[in-house]
Request: fold
Amino acid sequence: MHEELGALEKNRTWELIKLPEGKRAVGCKWVFTVKQNPDGQVKRYKARLVAKGYSQTYGIDYDETFAPVAKMSTIRTLISLAVNGGWKLHQLDVKNAFLHGDLVEEVYMEIPLGFGTDQTVGKVCRLKKSLYGLKQSPRAWFDRFRKAMIGMGYQQINADHTVFFRRSESHITMLTVYVNDMIITGDDEKEIAQLKVRLGKEFEVKDLGLLRYFLGIEIARGAEGIVLSQRKYALDLLKETGMLGCKPVTTPIDQKFKLGAEAGEPVDRDRYHRLVGRLIYLRHTRPDISFAVSVVSRYMHDPRNGHMDAVYQILRYLKSVPGKGLIFRKNGHVSIEGYCDSELASCADDRRSTSGYCIFIGGNLVWWKSKKQSVVARSTAEAEYRAMALGVAELLWLKSMLVELKLDQGAKMKLWCDNKSAISLANNPV
Reply:
């Protein structure tokens, strides 16, 4: 706690003043967390001072709050580009990231509990910089980081605002940021080293070396390429649910499943939400469970016994293959191709179809989705055509990213579909 408070005072996060008339101060609290290594061992203990932002009032204490974070498809795309280019992947962590954002609003906070003295009686902290818990903290931090990157000569791409790049002659350096975690890659090692130095001067940065563990995802580099997996995350989930000793199954969902809204008696909604939420995060490296998870997530509002049984089947499937993940190989190109399909009237409740697609960049899988369509399709061709439209939208987004990075090789994108009627519709300009 003293270390955290010292960092806040060193950063000049606040000044002590008397609370002006007509103003109110938000409270604060201490939050304690444990940082772990991929093997589960304790890395360090952290104490963090958090403002009670839930008591802030919109329009008085804050205005805009949105701040972008890197999409997982963007991170996988950069990894595929790095593998095909033979580039290294570096990882940086910004200490106390939210404390670097400059506040434009007038925000007052109470003295942290346990640190009041005779000199602080009747005073409050007027915040000059953002603090964890404040509604506007993510936006203030990202705005400060964006200005710093642009000041270093980097450009921000429109396809994903969390990606910055810099070109010098034939070399390129790219950076993407997820709150306070950064990934840097490119073929200009000299520029990468200089970027680390400049970021260290601007913020308090910790160089974590080559990318090995990011947002709960394990990254392993081998002779064949880079492997992404969430083995520890899957095993922790099985242990938490008491399913480590369960009998494994070979599929995450029955091929001829019939799951509807009225599937038995109601179950504990909080438990269902927690399990499905954990499975949704596991999809970042597990496209094999994507369809099954999308099915069980449809019943979050009113979970029943049948829905919980479907969740347990996914867990039993994970028991059979906990370490399965994605492999990124060097294929020597960055061409884009996608595959799409649909299942007609798969939802028993409203007869809507399900679209599915997956997209490859440089021969590596970077994006996939299984989603119920927004309207009822009246034919297989219509359902397949809607799935094609979703796939094309993602293809165009990824293409625009490569064009902005000046890495597009000019090759035509390919979209594969197995329905002749939908292909004929797509080829007909009328």
About this structure: The CA atoms of residues 159 and 401 lie 5 Å apart.
